[in-house]
């Protein structure tokens, strides 16, 4: 899904850059209040993990392959704002190695970082609202949300393509091809996300930001001292 240089026209690339700058600024401000001494190092580990796993491609159809986007995975582990920042950092490093164009970096951050993290986390929260309120539901909801986030990102790409395509391929054709292939990629994304979140939940559930949604708040109960029978 990495957009190369010249694939979309200059005004659309600039618009994507503006959205990315605004989104990253918002995420920086919000993440500064969400990350504590435990989750801040976790964010670095998440960014490194997403970068490493994105290097692995898996076949999805004849002549095509896919890789992890990581937006929902990062959002569930460290929160949507910090998660989007993790993916943005990965995309910036990848752009330096020509994996995605430098002029299209803003578009890539907007689509693969902001859209997947925030839209995917919204789906994750909606799923937790209907699933049993327990930690075992977290990996399932994360996997399903991750699977949904990929075709949503593909649809977002198609919207930008409709605004500033430099080719004459019809928008409907692009939408069908992008969403169709990325539904298959989403299956792989969902499996990887669910397994990874499940592994962290099994060992350190306190480090999973999204697990706080299923934890019941502690109740402090006070009990009056028993009064002896017949006493006053």
What's this entry about, in short?
The chain has 232 residues and is mostly helical. Helix content is 66%, strand content 3%.
Radius of gyration: 21 Å
| Cα end-to-end separation | 77 Å
Structural category is: mainly alpha
Strand order of the largest sheet: 1-2
What fraction of residues sit in β-strands?
A: under 5%
How many DSSP helices? 7
The assigned CATH architecture is Orthogonal Bundle
Main sheet record: 2 strands, antiparallel
> Shape, please?
globular
- What fold name goes in the CATH topology slot? Arp2/3 complex 21 kDa subunit ARPC3
Unreliable stretches (pLDDT < 50, length at least 5) are none
Number of DSSP strands?
A: 2
The residue-averaged pLDDT reads 87
Structural features, described:
- With 232 residues, the chain is mainly alpha-helical.
- It has one domain (10-213): Arp2/3 complex 21 kDa subunit ARPC3 (Orthogonal Bundle), CATH 1.10.1760.20.
- 66% of the residues lie in helices and 3% in strands.
- The protein is built from seven helices and two strands; from the N terminus they run ααββααααα.
- It has a two-stranded antiparallel ribbon with strand order 1-2.
- β1 and β2 (64-66) form a beta hairpin.
- α2 (39-54) runs antiparallel to α3 and α3 (71-78) crosses α5 (105-130).
- The longest helix has 33 residues, at 171-203.
- It starts with 9 loop residues before the first helix and ends in a 29-residue tail after the last helix.
- 43% of the residues are buried.
- The model has no long low-confidence stretch (mean pLDDT 87).
């Amino acid at each position: 899904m990495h957009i190369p240089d010249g694939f979309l026209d200059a005004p659309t690339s600039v618009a994507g850059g503006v959205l990315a700058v605004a989104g990253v600024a918002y995420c920086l401000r919000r993440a500064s209040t969400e990350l504590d001494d435990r989750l801040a190092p976790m964010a670095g580990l998440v960014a490194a993990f997403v970068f490493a796993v994105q290097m692995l491609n898996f076949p999805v159809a004849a002549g095509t392959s896919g890789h992890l986007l990581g937006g929902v995975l990062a959002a569930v582990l460290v929160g949507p704002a910090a998660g989007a920042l993790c993916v943005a950092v990965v995309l910036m490093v990848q752009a330096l190695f020509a994996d995605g164009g430098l002029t299209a970096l803003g578009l890539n951050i907007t689509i693969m970082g902001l859209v997947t993290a925030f839209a995917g986390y919204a789906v994750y929260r909606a799923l937790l609202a209907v699933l049993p309120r327990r930690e075992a539901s977290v990996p399932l909801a994360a996997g399903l949300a991750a699977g949904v986030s990929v075709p949503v990102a593909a649809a977002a790409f198609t919207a930008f393509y409709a605004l500033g395509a430099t080719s004459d391929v019809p928008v409907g054709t692009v939408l069908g091809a992008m969403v169709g292939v990325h539904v298959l990629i989403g299956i792989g994304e969902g499996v990887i996300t669910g397994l990874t979140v499940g592994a962290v939940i099994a060992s350190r559930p306190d480090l999973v930001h999204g697990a706080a949604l299923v934890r019941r708040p502690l109740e402090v109960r006070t009990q009056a001292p028993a009064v002896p029978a017949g006493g006053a």
